[in-house]
Design goal:
The structure is a homodimer. By secondary structure, chain A is an alpha+beta fold. Helix content of chain A is 32%, strand content 18%. Chain A is globular. At the A-B interface, strand 21 and helix 17 of A face strand 21 and helix 17 of B. Chains A, B: Keywords: Acetylation, Aminopeptidase, Cytoplasm, Hydrolase, Manganese, Metal-binding, Metalloprotease, Protease.
Chain lengths: 642, 642
């Protein structure tokens, strides 16, 4: 999936939320000394939760509550007289439809649009105070905002009680789902092994404490999963790790389950330094204060620079060591043999489900009864029949014709198109299985694609292959591969306006750091064998169609002819096994090399395609599955022990 | 030229400079109240001059004076007890040979090497004061150093009198060479036009004043050239431009020449706002103070963020608007039609000279009398016979066999190898002509290259062609093209450890911003039609040979089949016309597309090569020249009006 999707509940529809009364109440709260010592003149409502999660739980959708806009990115600011909401180009239309006229839409990326800082400075009376919940603003964002406001004579203050929560009468409670324990067969490493590795990194850099705030990092560290946030198998928690101490902050009720107690060795710790002290989720603040109060003069505490301002500022500056990527983030990104095996199994199951879907589509579409929503539902149903299926890994992007050109599209009843023999169908979807996470995009035509559709599809395929088959030195950062994905499109004057790949978790978040493939030179870490990323170039023709071809690929060592300075080389091995539709390809545009790139080659994909698109429609369900799996087993893609 | 060369005077040789007495004197100066109110505990000696020039005049070689090391990059720091010098991997060997044992070589880029800040903190007594000449430290460097020292209880202070100058008895005087005026036929725009354009950029951004500090920007703005710094046709000056004021700070004696006075309209200015007030070079500080004293409350002053700390801090913070690239830097990078025509002419002349050289080499090498130095001298001699030749644009990298693997090599008597029929010869050289600047690298073999040499040469050539023939959307930054240059090498497990291209001035510095092609994601500006960059991938086998193929290329509009979102596309047109040696190419490794990329194709280059390498040795001098030029004229490379 190229871009974070929209969080649309199907019944939200597109009529604006009436916010007159809510804004009145919020402005009252901004003056209420129950919450703040002095009235504030503006209140900032960011998108995120206290863990800077990309996907958030319903109780954390505060920005949506106050303004009605429910896209994944956006910040609302309310002053005594104004209310404004900043979002980017993906959401201009949606935001304008979901917000009433009490709100001004601030279109980010347009030259004339003021930044939040500049806008505040332009509307605030002199010496104003701007409030924000320090738990949902990241430390680096606080710093920038605070500096900008100070330069204009204003000040940014932390408002401890969230003012949205204060007026949100039917706010959902924070989820506290059952925890799932993962054994060695899925994780490859016990949580004790991971703890020891973390501590050795800390010792290496002379760090006394590490504060874990990202939910996927905590889930990975303790080999636990939850379902507090849709699509992301994580649970609300914090952890503080010292050289002899482990503190886990989580709703204590969740720890009553015997399997969880046993997994964490809560009652019978093997060693003192591996004994976990548990405490309520909310107590992390005071516990971190206590830890910091006892720090020696030279002791340092690691915390992500994207952690909340509230938690970051607990650590005195002299002891604070903020890092862009935590050791957990880096360790989690490099999958071990067990995780890789699990990811491969998950991708076989996922391919079986999607091949069944394609056969079903081929049969059903001519009847005119399949819609974007029903196709996505069918995909979910077929996936759910696979072993260890947990749920989807993100909301399916199921889009027909012009809807395919909307990169973050998610079908709604009022936009739902019927699949036909005349339009391109793009399906970007994925699942969580206990053994792994999938994310795959295929673009298909069930009638006769036009020459132009085939041409552009082939350019995208050439880009996809160029990345997938790239050989590059150890230590190369993913952003250096991005142009390979675009070269064929560029040569014909075409392009796509999103990145090419993101890190993928193993039964964890479908988007994870610290690596990726993008023209944006964010601070990505070098690619390493064992990392897993997506390879998903695309092409979008507004009002007509969208094309995207996405595989999840594993970084593996390559063995080219030479080995310059003993640096070693890397390449990718595709994990995704879903066939690419042969009829969309104009083979005249492919080089011989592109056609025959080894066992993961187009020839192999064509072979699969041939099986499924030429013969599948007459196969029965189990026969498809068997033939598909046996084909994989015969191929050199998989070792015989699968 | 891939990397800044070393500033080696041929007689400097490689014996260490004895610095006992110099260090004693410097330490005395560090306590002398004649220069500073309180003794300082450390003194920093950076590489640069007051204009942050890449190449510097002899009077500015202070770091070389104090420690003996004369590489292009390095910073010396002297404390009461220690003396240390930081430089990068290109210079470890050279620095260790040129410095005596009073100095510690700090090898940058190695994990165990402390940064200047950390080293100072580790050796200084509590509450120390560190001094630096504020004129030769850039504002952004001052900021970082000052912050780091403050965090450890020390302070950074500006020492107005340079302490090296205080002990440098025979310090050369600052050059003040004759100024050359350039007419419209060379510049395409009068300085008055440039001034008007600058002022309109200032008005657009509501900027009242602009302080020009980079020497090439000042030379470009006033259509003047000098020869104060070797290889760079610039002159020491500053300029301050307001909406109705122009102040030029330069050694006043230089303005006595009637042509210069007339060019600048010093005696008869056409308009008040185009009347230039001249003042001595040294008076820029007090004049800028005067300008700042009269600023209105909201007035802003533009200055490069790489300008000296001294000049930057004259501007009160509230009025200071530092920019990474000045409007002059950006305007200068986009060459106008006249400049492009001049660059083309310069490249024809340069190609003629180099073809003569190659023919001469082919004849002379078998005699065993040609050395790296004599070949470089011959190249200079042949170039100097061309019209409007001014000098070299950088010290020639003339290297045989293993010397070619030293990327910044410059032949010295003690390293000078003889060209033979057995070793690869790499020549990276360029010239300044009044109509343009050249920079070209060719790698040749005058006997029979080995299969391995041909193979690696061909990979480099493939990379060179991939960049040169790339088509990319308007707005693309050069760093996104860097991987194209490496793809063929990477596929065979090879790479090169330098960037792929740099901006090239028009009868100005051979290295200029703001664009480039590099894996390092420095803040490069997007490529634009009219920009000129080098395309110079390479491959280096330590102890054996070096390969580099460098053309200077012009960014031009491309017209591919489609035009996505009306963005338009760009590509490159090679300006360099020097043939590439056909016998170094393994044509089996080239695709058909690589062989036939239009009129600037390898076929064309092969044609030239054929002419010169197969027949040249029997041609007489003028015949070569005539045939070469007439070939260009017949080709589609040049319009008939050359």
């Amino acid at each position: 999936m190229a871009l974070p999707p929209v969080y649309l509940s199907l019944d939200a529809a597109m009529s604006p939320k009436i916010t007159v009364e809510l804004l009145r109440q919020l402005r009252q709260a901004m003056r209420n000394t129950k919450y703040i010592a002095e009235p504030i003149q503006a209140y900032i409502v960011p998108s995120g939760d206290a863990h800077q999660s990309e996907y958030i739980a319903p109780c954390d959708c505060r920005r949506e509550f106050i303004c009605g806009f429910n896209g994944s990115a956006g910040t609302a600011i309310v002053t005594e007289k104004h209310a404004a909401m900043w979002t980017d180009g993906r959401y201009f239309l949606q935001a304008s439809q979901q917000m009433d006229n009490n709100w001004t839409l601030m279109k980010m990326g347009l030259k004339e649009t003021l930044s939040q800082e500049d806008w505040l400075i332009s509307v605030l009376p002199e010496n104003s105070t701007v409030g924000v919940d320090p738990w949902i603003i990241a430390a680096d964002q606080w710093k920038n905002m605070s500096k900008a406001l100070a330069s204009a004579g204003h000040s940014l203050v932390a408002v401890q009680d969230n003012l949205i929560d204060a007026i949100w009468m039917d706010r959902p409670t924070r989820p506290s789902t059952q925890l799932l324990t993962l054994g060695l067969g899925f994780t490859g490493l016990t949580w004790q092994d991971k703890m020891t590795a973390l501590r050795s990194k800390m010792a290496e850099r002379k760090i006394s404490w590490f504060v874990a705030t990202a939910l996927d990092e905590i889930a990975w560290l303790f080999n636990l999963r939850g379902s507090d946030i849709e699509y992301n198998p994580v649970f609300f928690a914090y952890a503080i790790v010292g050289m002899n101490t482990i503190r886990l902050f989580v709703d204590i009720k969740r720890l009553a389950v015997p399997t969880v107690r046993e997994h964490l060795q809560l009652d019978t710790p093997s060693k003192v330094e591996l004994s976990i002290q548990t405490a309520p989720y909310e107590s992390v603040f005071t516990e971190l204060q206590a830890v910091c109060a006892s720090l020696g003069p030279k002791e340092k505490v690691w915390i992500s620079d994207k952690a909340s301002c509230a938690l970051t500022q607990v650590i005195p500056k002299a002891h604070r060591s903020p890092i862009p990527y935590t050791p957990l983030c880096l360790a989690k990104a490099v999958k071990n043999a067990t995780e890789i095996q699990g990811m491969k199994m998950a991708h076989i199951k996922d391919a079986v489900a999607l091949c069944e879907l394609f056969a079903w589509l081929e049969k059903e579409i001519p009847k005119g009864t399949v819609t974007e929503i029903s196709a996505a539902d069918k995909a979910e149903e077929l996936r759910s029949q696979q072993k260890d299926f947990v749920g989807l890994s993100f909301p399916s992007i199921s889009s027909v014709g012009p809807n395919g050109a909307i990169i973050h599209y998610r079908p709604l009843p009022e936009t739902n198109r019927t699949l036909s023999l005349n339009e391109i169908y793009l399906l970007d979807s994925g699942a969580q299985y206990i053994d792994g996470t999938t994310d795959v995009t295929r673009t298909m035509h069930f009638g006769s694609p036009s020459a132009y559709e085939k041409e552009t599809f082939t350019y995208v395929l050439k880009g996809h292959i160029a990345v997938s088959a790239a050989i590059f030195p150890n230590g190369t950062k993913g952003h250096l591969l991005d142009s390979f994905a675009r070269q064929a499109l560029w040569e014909s004057g075409l392009d796509y306006l999103h990145g090419t790949g993101h890190g993928v978790g193993c039964f964890l978040n479908v988007h994870e750091g610290p690596c990726g493939i993008s023209y944006k030179t964010f601070a990505d870490e070098p690619l390493e064998a064992g990392m897993i990323v997506s390879d998903e170039p695309g092409y979008y023709e507004d009002g007509l169609f969208g094309i995207r071809i996405e595989n999840v690929v594993l970084v593996v060592p390559a063995k080219p002819k030479y080995n310059y300075r003993n640096k070693g080389s890397l390449t990718f091995e595709p994990l995704t096994l879903v066939p690419i539709q042969a009829k969309m390809v104009n083979t005249d545009l492919l080089t011989q090399k592109e056609v025959s790139l080894g066992p993961h080659s187009l020839e192999f994909i064509f072979y699969q395609t041939h099986c499924f698109f030429r013969r599948c429609h007459s196969f029965i369900y189990t026969k498809i599955k068997h033939s598909f799996i046996s084909n994989f087993k015969k191929s050199s893609l998989y070792s015989s022990n699968i």
